Amino acid sequence: MHLDHSHTHDGPAAVSADAVRPDGRRRALRVGLGGPVGSGKTATVAALCRALRDELSLAVVTNDIYTREDAAFLLREAVLPPERIAAVETGACPHTAIRDDISANLEAVEDLEDEVGPLDLVLVESGGDNLTATFSRGLVDAQLFVIDVAGGDDIPRKGGPGVTTADLLVVNKTDLAPYVGSDLQRMARDAKAQRAELPVVFQSLRSEEGVSEVAAWVRERIAAWTAA
Amino acid sequence: MNRATLLVLADGRFPAGGHAHSGGAEAAVAAGRIKDAADLAEFCRGRLHTSGLVAAALAAAAAVGVDPLELDEAADARTPSAALRTAARKLGRQMMRAARATWPSAELDALASVRPKGAHQPVVLGLAARSAGLGPEDAVYVAAYESVSGPATAVVRLLSLDPFDATAVLARLAPDLDRVAADAAECARRVPIEGVDALPASSAPLLDIGAEAHAAWAVRLFAS
Ligand SMILES: Nc1nc2c(ncn2[C@@H]2O[C@H](COP(=O)(O)OP(=O)(O)O)[C@@H](O)[C@H]2O)c(=O)[nH]1
Ligand SMILES: [Mg+2]
C-alpha cells in the first residue's frame, strides 16, 4: 500500500482541489453561495448569470434540502440553458454535501465541465442551512455568504463561520431595511468587527445596481484565477 | 495490514456519498411500512439478508482480486431495478473518488478509467478494501453493516426516531451481521474456482418496487 500524494492518476481526476483537469486544461473557478433560507442566494445566482453569461462560460450546481426547487426556478427564469444547471440531492443535509462529504458536488461540477465545458465559472448554491454551514476548500475556491436585512440586523454581530470567514459577505434586500427596522450602519459596523479586512457588500436585487458589486468581485476572482 | 484501517473505511463519515441515500427507507416510511424502531429492525433484517448479502459477497470477491468488471456485470444482473443500478453506480463513483484519494492503487485507477461514471458500489468498496490492505473478511463486514446503518440513520431523520433506539436496532442485528458476513465470505471464496455464479442472488422485490416509485417522486429527502 502506498500513500504517495504525487501518485499519478490515469483515470478521471481523483483529487478534489486539483486546478488542472485530466486533459491538462485549467478547470473553472468554483464559487460557493451559502446562507440562511430565503436570504436571496438563488436570486443572486440568477442575477449573476444574467450579468456574466455574455462574457463568461457559466454553469450552476444547486443543493436543495428536499426538492429541486432552486434548479427549477433557474430553469424557469431561463438564466442559463438547462444543460448548464445541475441539482445535487443532499439527503436533507446540504451542509454535509458542501463540507463534510463533497463527492456528489464534485461529480456534478466535473460532469458539467465534461458536458458543456470549457467553463470559466461554476456557481455552487447550498440549500439554506444554518449560520455554521460553510463550503469545503476541496469543493470551492471562494465562497459568498448571503444574509438579508429582514433576518434580523444582529446576525453580523452573532457571527458564526459563514459570517466571519466567507470570502465575501453579502447583506441582501437593503430595500426592505426601512420596513423591518434594520439598522444598516450597525450591520456594517458589526460585520467589520467580525471580519476585519474581509469585504462586505450591501445590495438590493430590486434596485438599479442589483448584483453589480458582487459581479465585479467575481470578475476579479476570475482574473486572479486565470492569472495564477 | 493495519487493523485500524477497517475503522476508517467503515466510518459512517467516510466521504463517499452514503449520507444522501436511505437504502429504501424513505419509500418504506412513506408507504407506512416503517413507523417505529420495531419496524426499522424488521426492514433492516430483510435488507441485510437480501441485498446486503449480495453486496457483501460482491465486495469480498473484489477484495480477493476477482476481475471487477466481471463483478460489475454480476452486480447489474443482480439488481433488477434500474433506479437502484443508477444509485449503485453513483455511489460507486463517489466511493472510487474517496478511495483513490485515501488508498491510491493501480487497480483503482484501472477501474476508474474503464468505468468513469462509476462501477457498482460494493465492487468499488471491495477494491478499496484491497487497496487499503484489508481482506475479504473485512470487506464483507463493511458492506453488510452499510446495508443496515444507512436506513437506520435515514429513519432517524425521516421519523425523528430516537437515535438511541436506532442504534440499539443496529446492535441487536450483530448476530445476523456475523452470519451474513460469514456466508458472503464463503460465497466469495468459491468465485475464483466456480465463477460469479457462486455469488448469491437474493433480492427483495419490495425494495426494488419501492426504489422505482421513489425515483419518480418530485419531492424527497434522499436520493434513493
Ligand atoms: N425585496 C427583496 N426581495 C428579494 C431580494 N433578493 C431576493 N429577494 C426575494 O427573496 C425571496 C427568497 O429569495 P431566494 O433567492 O429564493 O432565497 P434563497 O433561499 O437564499 O435561495 C424571493 O422571493 C426573492 O425574490 C432583494 O434584494 N430585495
Ligand atoms: Mg435557494
TrEMBL record, chain A:
Domain CobW/HypB/UreG nucleotide-binding: 31-201
Positions annotated to bind GTP: 35-42
CDD domains cross-referenced by the UniProt entry: UreG
Major localization listed first in the record, in broad terms: cytoplasm
Subcellular location: Cytoplasm
Keywords: Chaperone, Cytoplasm, GTP-binding, Nickel insertion, Nucleotide-binding
HAMAP family in UniProt: UreG
Subunit organization: Homodimer. UreD, UreF and UreG form a complex that acts as a GTP-hydrolysis-dependent molecular chaperone, activating the urease apoprotein by helping to assemble the nickel containing metallocenter of UreC. The UreE protein probably delivers the nickel.
UniProt record similarity statement: Belongs to the SIMIBI class G3E GTPase family. UreG subfamily.
Its job: Facilitates the functional incorporation of the urease nickel metallocenter. This process requires GTP hydrolysis, probably effectuated by UreG.
Stated name of the protein: Urease accessory protein UreG
From TrEMBL, chain B:
Localization of this protein: Cytoplasm
Pfam families: UreF
Keywords: Chaperone, Cytoplasm, Nickel insertion
Keyword Cell inner membrane set for record: no
Main subcellular localisation: cytoplasm
Known role: Required for maturation of urease via the functional incorporation of the urease nickel metallocenter.
Subunit structure as annotated in this protein's UniProt entry: UreD, UreF and UreG form a complex that acts as a GTP-hydrolysis-dependent molecular chaperone, activating the urease apoprotein by helping to assemble the nickel containing metallocenter of UreC. The UreE protein probably delivers the nickel.
Family under the similarity heading: Belongs to the UreF family.
Protein name per the record: Urease accessory protein UreF
Gene: ureF
